[in-house]
Amino acid sequence: MLENPAISEASLEVFLSDRPTQTVIVNLSPFFIGRGRENGNHLAIDDMRVSRKCAAITKGDNGYILEDRGQLMGLFVNEEKIATRLLSDGDAIRIGPEDGCTIVFHAGETQPAIESLLTRIRSIPVAASLPSGDGLGKLNLLLEATLLLHSHLPLESVLSTMIHHAIAITGADRGMLLEPDSTGALKVRLALNSNGETLPAEEMKPSRTALSQAMESQRAIVNEDLNFANLNLQSAHSVVYQLLRSAVVIPLYGMPRGMVTGSTVSLERELVGAVYLDSKRTAAFSALDRQILDALGAQAAGILDNAHLVRRERERQRLEQELAIAREIQQALLPQGLQDFPHMVVTGIHRPCHDVGGDYFDVFPIGADRTAVLVADVSGKGLGAALLTTMLQGALSGMTLGVDPVRVFNHMNRFLCEHAVVGRHATMFFGLLARDGTLEFVRASHPSPLLLRKGLVADLYTGGSYPIGLVEQATFAATTIRLEPDDILLLYTDGITEAEDSRQRQFGIERLREVLAGHREASLESLKTRILEAVENFTRGATQSDDITLLLVQYRTPVEG
User: Would the pLDDT of 158 be above 80?
Assistant: First the structure.
């Protein structure tokens, strides 16, 4: 069960245009921000426009201080470029260009401190119509509720006590705490009667009309005598059926959260619940009662908002952990430490744009005289694409048993088409390179590998074909060519050619040809590095939008042993 934390920590809302918003707790000082977790960053942002050492947030005596640690394109707070800045709640931090990463800082004080609440209590005017003992008793209830905020009691116990205090202050017959469900509709979370006994939440029938009025006005609704309320509320079914005479509804809103629209950031409050109280008797609420109810409502909102933040953070951490495990599994399935073969030299790299990706490559021997090389690109990105690549790898591994590649391609196509609910397809190139230079390959709509021969670059094939899993009637065939010694094959995915710069221009096939042709004497490792550097230099200032995969194969005269 969640507990109510004693101290509310600062948090960061991270907005990136191509992925969901995330909330990160600032639980260390200094708290480092930058590209790549391997660079020691606590908030790792996967964006090439973000420097590896970007910024740091340090907690000082006066609050949280943001410091620019070397962000190349500048660090901005509320659109003002800064070197250091004392952060205030709701500050919008922009990293780099206007369409770059935006972070909204939240100071974390979701509930008032004890000192400020005591000051507020002292400032409340005690109504002359109430006995002093009654007023002091109610103030004491508020003080007890305040102390609950700094306890380590289970969340349900704290909320139950808050509702019990609200019933005692208003003299209501029953009280309820409602929370929005996944659709936004308010559902009863807990309910108590005037004796502090728990009531079945599923049997409670709060006045939906009173709740709607409070939600529309975004303020507390207090009806001391429903006979004098507006006609809609008087005639509401729940009011008439339950013989209700008074009702109080206090909507509960969390701390303002940042909402990004284009290049602007606005602060909006999220509805986290409502306190509902009703009675079959008329009631009379003094100014003191109303102010105490407001204070209790603010505290209940703070408790729920903080609990939601903790729950979201734990969920984010759980997802991060699961994605890290998926990434480890996917990386482990890729060929590790590519080794040369007697008749070929090989090197490759896979760089997903998210934690896991839909690209896949492999190199493995088929018998004593042939070696398989393949590259595949599953439609989409993320975990769903990664799952399908794992399935394809399992199917292709059957070729080591001597299964005909064409039969495997046709089988995989039928299987995916029969399971169309998966909603994904894949492009693929699969080749078998023999010791004598014979290359037999099967293609499924994948970009043609580039062949570098004596300084000239050419496509291995032209013409189209079908992806695997898109058209059930599609059939695949094998093609055979002969490679010459020192020929180099470049297998790649469209994450290379479709990589975009900050002006949305693509790297393109011609730039790739130029890089390949311009370094004909370079080793495969050097050639791979130069291709990646060319793409990175071209896209500098833009986010990697697709998985990047390269596989370079050079045929050579077989070397025995």
Answer: no
Q: What pLDDT, in 10s, does the model give residues 198-238?
A: 888 888 888 888 888 888 887 777 776 556 556 565 555 55
Q: Which two structure tokens, joined as six digits, stand for 46?
A: 């996967």
pLDDT in tens, 383-400: 777 777 777 877 777 777
Q: How far apart (Å, rounded) are the C-alpha atoms in residues 443 and 464?
A: 9
For 419, counting Cβ atoms within 10 Å of its Cβ (0-12 exposed, 13-18 middle, 19+ buried), the class is exposed
Q: What pLDDT is recorded for position 490?
A: 95
Q: Is 56 helix (H, G, I), strand (E, B) or coil?
A: strand
Cα–Cα distance between 558 and 486 in angstroms, integer? 11
Distance CA 537, CA 524 (A): 20
Q: How far is CA 552 from the centre of its chain?
A: 34
Give the Cβ contact number of residue 326 at 10 Å.
17
Structural domains in the chain? 11-108 (2.60.200.20), 114-312 (3.30.450.40), 334-555 (3.60.40.10)
Cis peptide preceding 352, ω within 30 of 0: no
Pairing of strands 43-44, 31-34: parallel
